[in-house]
Amino acid sequence: MYRPRRSAASEAEKSDTERWLVSYADYMTLLFALFVVLYSMANMEREQFKALQDTISKVFVATDKTGTGIQGQSVQPDIHPQSDFELYGSGLEDATGPTLLADNSKLEQIDSTKLGSPLVGMQKDINRALRTLIESGLAKVTLDEDWLTVELNSGLLFGSGSARSNSSASAVITELTAILKQTNNFLRVRGYTDSVPIRTEQFPSNWELSVARAASIVRLLEDLGIEPQRMAIEGYGQYSPFADNATAQGRSQNRKVVIALSKYAYEAVVVETPEAAEPETAAEQAAEAAAAQEQQKIRVIRLPHGGIRITTRPPEPGEEEPPIEQEQ
User: Do strands 231-235 and 185-192 pair parallel, antiparallel, or not at all (unpaired)?
Assistant: First the structure.
């Protein structure tokens, strides 16, 4: 079968018309790579990213003390430059000029004394421990940059209008305590109520009821072994609702106790025991006793206008203490 041969001019014209495909393919490849990077950044754990950000900021922040770097070659002992000239150099320095390096021991100190246990790991453990309650809507676990909050419905913990924890509360708090004992993060126990007014001898308003319920959970946590120094109580009453109080379902959602865990850790304060004072001599003890007796002595002071004052204080300027008359 005869096939007509294509001319060179037609081949060149076809090549010119398809040349745009190369640039288009490169553009699509770059665009695909961009979306892959954005997707990977979006899926990064926020808590891990925040911890990395805090660590980097602690590394490169200037300190007030010298000698914070590792002494040796290519290390600047003082990372507090006095001017841009000192920071960037005069151009005459060699490879051993100033650089910014961090001491690894400082990073370990930051992690162990300021930041507590990672909230992401605790969120997974708490979700696993309270899975049944979460699925039934009686509990909710949320995480943001600074707090991990565990919301517990008040009906699960207390009776109606009461702040006395029931057996269900003991079981739930016991499960949480097993996780919280492994951490040193600060705790905030927050109480919330609905807008239905309460006026009893024990709870004059929803303020007292919300605080009493939060305090009941704090005492339960303390009895189970949580350090009281880590905890604090917050009462919001009816003034920080989670849902609309106009419906029964909304009021039920507003009656809750929230256990909030901070990303920061509690640091135990070491109290130095004062040294025992040296025992006083007999003369010093006698002098102190005489001074104390003198201060407690009842005096009759004669005032300038002729009156008298009965007091234990010594006479003031212008006043006179009559002499003591001795018996004959």
Answer: parallel
Angle at which helices 167-180 and 206-223 pack, to 10 degrees? 60
Contact of 121 with 179, CB cutoff 8 Å: no
Beta strands in 144-270 (DSSP E): 147-153, 185-192, 231-235, 256-265
| CA distances to 127, 206, 258 from 255, in Å | 21, 11, 10
- Report the sign of the C-alpha dihedral through residues 123, 125, 130, 134, in that order: positive
Reference 153, options 120, 174, 186, 130; nearest CA is: 130
Question: Per-residue pLDDT tens for 132-181?
Answer: 999 999 999 999 989 999 999 999 999 888 999 999 999 999 999 999 99
Please give the distance of CA 209 from its chain centroid, rounded to a whole number: 25
Judged against a pLDDT cut of 90, whether residue 113 lies above it is answered with no
Write out the DSSP string of 59-80: HHS--SSS--S--STT--S---
> Which domains can be identified in the chain, with CATH numbers?
119-265 (3.30.1330.60)
